[in-house]
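FAQ: What does the model actually see?

It sees only this:
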Amino acid sequence: MKILIYGLNYAPELTGTGKYTAEMAVLLASRGHEVRVVCAPPYYPEWRVAAGHSAWRYQRETRDGVKLYRAPLWVPSRPNGIKRMLHLSSFAASSLPVLAWQFFWRPEVVMLIAPTLMCAPATLGLARLARASAWLHIQDYEVDAAFDLGLLKSSRAARVARWFESTLLRRFDTVSSITRQMSARATSKGVASSKVVCLPNWVDVSTIFPLPRASEYRQLLGIPATQKVVLYSGNMGAKQGIETLAEAAARLATRSDITFVFCGSGAARENLLERCAGLMNCIFMPLQPTERLNELLNLADIHVLPQRADAADLVMPSKLTGMLASGRAIVAMARRGTALHEAVAPRGVVVQPDNVKALVAAITVLASDAERRLALGKAARNYAERALSPASTIQTFEDRLASEFRQAKEGLAKKPGQFYEPRPPTAHARRRRKPATAEEGAPD
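And it is asked to produce this:
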């Protein structure tokens, strides 16, 4: 099957949407599908285009058997509401020629990864012209997040944006998201329940697993074996509520046996550094390479996962899957009934968002109770092995497409714009995957 994935973020980005989009593309390619991706150059979460890539030129490369077409975009060094809109608009505009070129490839599935929804009209247009399935996969409800988190403030603009969002969502053949609650939100926006699918994020438990020894990062950072490490690793952005960790570190500054390690980057990193200035119990690190991720996650005695209360079920922190697989205790901030609470509560400690006192109490108790940390870590690991398999998510994706194609073949009622029976696999889909190479130029 020919599958075109269209989204802003992609590998080698180490966190967030790009990580999962890349893994999905590679998994689909490994199962015999022809996969192409239209995306931007890597820039997240540093908000700076990575070395070896250009913010202003179109580029092509083949990575892990997937052909990539990178379109230029403007990346603000200090993003805010308006700058983010311009940033997203620049990609939506620059990627149009690349997307239009894919018509000649005749994809059978066109999948848009949200964010950004600004690319939805072009996605729907290509799918209709190519008689392909139009699939929207939502990693982040960007419209709701922008207004609920105060990134954009106009109430009139919010009404227009939400009407526009609902109108677009209803026109996709399939709408999926990463949790049960986020999938249900699509239905509340007017999408027929028969079109909605839950495709959870996953983790490769063969690459993220509990180490039988102390992490090498303890020696690298000079952290004694007697110290309990409270680790936050990932994007440091507006939706994380990471400022609560700075307050917790300040309240625990007198504890000589607890060290906070902050690993990552993002728009809120500078503010976090300022809040932690002068605290001797805090260590900051940049994002680490993918091949070192397991070593890093095993540094934690306690993983911490803050989240703002107003971000509940608008986003699901992508870092959670790795935390669970690492087999370490987790303290998360979430309200009862949310997807994050549902995932962590049976196998970790959950406190209310923005409640620094409760967060400090949870860390204090776990730091003094090695047996409970071990029990929670084992429960988290067992859950990751049982429920977070990448194969099960991809199987759900393939089963959904097979069902739709079967209905079309059997001559069931077909609405305009729904996709047609797939063409037989081409010889290209059966070729041996080639190692990653890079090249520049116009789309082929």
